[in-house]
C-alpha cells in the first residue's frame, strides 16, 4: 500500500538487517509511529520477538493488526466466507463501466448524500473519492465485516487497503481529483476498479502472512504509549517529517476505520479540524520540543532506540543532525545514511503525490 514515509523499500537493505539483528536480542519491539505497519510487520514475521505497534490513527492499528494479531496463516476463502455480504468476490462488479464525464461526476456528487440505503461511505465520499457503485460496495463491506477473530483482523486491513487503492486521489486522501479535462482520466481509472475484487486481492495478500508471536496494536500518542516501555524493549521511531498533519492526508481512511465522521465538508470532504488527530511532531513551532521530550523519556526507560529521519532539514524543522545533537549527551549514537525516496506530500513543486530522492539517517542509540 502507498503510504507517505513508508519504510517498506528500506527494509530490504541495511535498515532491515539492523532491525532484525537487534530485535532478535530484545524482549519486545515497539514501533511508536507505525503508519502502514510495514516495519512492525517485518519484525513480527521475521523474528520471534513480540511486537507492539502504536500510532495516533485508528486505520494504522487496523493495518498493523492484520499481521501482528495472528500467529497462523488463514485461507483467503475462510475470510471471505466470514464476510456477511451478498456479493460474489470473484465475479466482476462492473460491466467494464463506460467512462464518466464531468457532468456525470457532478451528478454522482449531487445524488450520493441522499442515495437510498446508502451508508456513510456513499453519503460522505460517493461521487468524490468513489463512484456510487464503489461507495455502495465499500459500505456493504464495512457493514458485513466478520465479527471477530483472525478473519476480522485481516478483513479490517483489507477494507482500508481497498479504500486506499480505489480512491480517485493522488496516493493519499487529502482531496479527490476534480473532473477537469486533465484529471478525468484518473477519475475514470480509479472508478473502474472493482472494490470486491480488489478486496479479495488484499485478503489474499494478507492472509498467508502472520506474526511468529502474537503482538499488540494501540491507538495512542507516542508520548502516552511510553507508559508501557521497559529496559528490555527495542523502540523504533519513524516520526513525521512534514509540517502538515497526517490526519489531513488520510482522513478518508480514518473515517472508514472509525465508522464515519459526524459531517464532512469542502472539496476534500474532510471532517472538522478539531475532530482530526493532531501531532506535535507536525507542528513546526513545537516539533523540536516534542522530539526532545520523546528522547528524554525514552532515556528514562533505559531501552534501546532506533530513529529514522531525513538527513536534510524537513518542513517540520527537524533533521537527523538535530536529533543526533539532542541525543548525544545521554546516548551512544551510531549514524548510518541510506538512499531513500520520500513523498513531497504534493508540495515542493513536485506535482501531485510527488516524490524526491533523499538521504535517510538510521540512528542506532544505546543508553550511555
Ligand atoms: C513517517 S510515518 C511512519 C511510516 C511507517 N514507518 C511506515 O513504514 O509506514 C509517521 C506516522 O506517525 C504517526 N504519528 C504522528 N504523530 C504521532 C504521535 N504523536 N504518536 C504516534 N503516532 C504519530 C502518523 O499518523 C504516521 O502514521
Bound molecules: S-adenosylmethionine
Q: Under CATH, the topology of the largest domain is which?
A: Rossmann fold
Provide the domain count: 2
Round the mean pLDDT to the nearest integer and report it: 93
Question: If you had to describe this structure to a student in words, what would you say it looks like?
Answer:
This protein is of the alpha/beta class. The chain has two domains: 10-72 and 210-243 and 283-367, Vaccinia Virus protein VP39 (Rossmann fold, 3-Layer(aba) Sandwich), CATH 3.40.50; 77-205, no CATH class. 40% of the residues lie in helices and 14% in strands. The protein has helices at residues 14-24, 38-46, 58-68, 76-82, 102-111, 120-125, 132-143, 149-166, 184-191, 195-207, 222-225, 246-249, 251-258, 284-301, 320-327; strands spanning 28-31, 50-55, 216-219, 233-237, 304-310, 331-343, 355-367. Strands 3-2-1-4-5-7-6 form a seven-stranded mixed β-sheet, sandwiched between helices. Helix 3 (58-68) packs across helix 8 (149-166) and helix 14 packs across helix 15 (320-327). The longest helix is centred in the middle third of the chain and has 18 residues, at 149-166. Mean pLDDT is 93; it is low at 346-353. S-adenosylmethionine (SAM) binds at residues 3, 5-7, 33, 35-36, 38-39, 54-57, 60, 221-222, 238-240, 246, 279, 281. S-adenosylmethionine binds at residues 3, 5-7, 33, 35-36, 38-39, 54-57, 60, 221-222, 238-240, 246, 279, 281.
